Every structure is written in C-alpha cells, then in structure tokens.
Amino acid sequence: MASTGSKNTNSGKGKNSNKDMAAARRARIEEQRRTERARERRNRIITIVASTAILAGLVGGGWYLIDRANEKEQAKAAPISGEKTWSSLGRNHVTTKVNYPMTPPVGGNHAPVWQDCNGNVYTQPLQNENAVHSLEHGAVWVTYNNKATDADVKALGAKVQKTPYTLMSPYPSESSPITLTAWGHQLNVNKASDSRVKEFFDKYVQGKQTPEPGAACTGGKSS
Predict the structure, then answer these.
(1) For residue 43, what are the domain limits?
(2) CA spacing 20 to 30 A to 30: which of 47, 195, 216, 220?
(3) What is the pLDDT of residues 146-170, one digit of tens each?
(4) Pairing state between β 84-85 and 178-182
C-alpha cells in the first residue's frame, strides 16, 4: 500500500508542473500579443501624424504656389512704369511705305514678310514695315540710338541672342537711348541695367498682346 501512495504523489506533481508550464507559456504569449498591439498602436499614431504633417505641407505648399502664380499674373497685368500703349492698330499687309505715328512703330499695317526675330541682332537699321510684322508675331524689338553706350548695346545684344521672339537693331531717329517695343506697347530706358528691361521681356515676349501667338520668327527677312 505504501508503494501505491508514493506513485500517486509523483503523478500529481507532474500534472501540476505541466499546468504551470502551460500557464507560463500562455502568459508569455499574452504578453507578446500586448506588446505587439502596443507597437501597432504606436505605428498607427506615427503614420497618422506623419500623413497629417505631409498633407498639411502639401496643402500649404499648394496654396503658396497658387499665391505665387496669382502674384505673377497680377504683375503681368499691371502696366510697367513709364510704358506707353496704343490700341486699334491696323493689321493689313501692304507693299508700300507706312507713315507710322510713333517712333519706332508699335504696330499697324505692315509688310507681308516679317523680319527674322529668333534672337537676331542686326547692326544696320531695319525697315519698319518688316519689324512691325515681327511684333505681330509676339516679338519684342530692342532699338537704340547713338546715345546708348557700347556696354549697354553689348549687354542688350547678349540678352536678345538668348531670347527667342526678340530682335535688335539701331534706330538713329528715336528720342531715347534705348527703346523696347512690343505690339501696342513701348518703353524708353537709358540703361540696359534698368530693371524694367527684364520686366518688359517677361511680359511681352509672346505675351497676351500678341495678335498672332505662335507664328514663326524664322523664315522671314534676314537682313
């Protein structure tokens, strides 16, 4: 009988040990699950915060870009200080000389062939009627008289050469050392460094004033 009692005691201890091990495993598994759930919550929070920050940045950046674009459009719409404008200009092709009311001309009837204006710098005066046709295509015409310095002429020539839809030539009879002309618009300046030169180029090279936007500036008269 003593032997039988001893076996039952050992068996009970084994069962308790197995139960303890199983409980410990369950506890470890549950702890791992809690840790994983906490990690997932942290990751979700980080993702939400990061996404919100990115979205806020995109929205803020988008509004900034829109505001900048609006500012540029408003700047282009405003007249440039000192510029003169004309409207109701004729656009007929003629083969005779035109008596333009302004010097240099800003538009009106003109020759059937335009003056090449793909950044062309001419050293001799041009025929008004050909240059006016270039203005109709959206070109800016830079002219100068003998009051312009050699340095200014050189600087303006370099700017024209790298700017499609522009041309440059001497114009001895104009009143200002340097004149910038687009269709219906004209600005007189004394120096190439005048900030309005860039403003005029930005606004009127293929600008909204162009009667024939996209028309060619090559294939016309080249001298």
Answers:
(1) 1-78
(2) 47
(3) 999 999 999 999 999 999 999 999 9
(4) unpaired
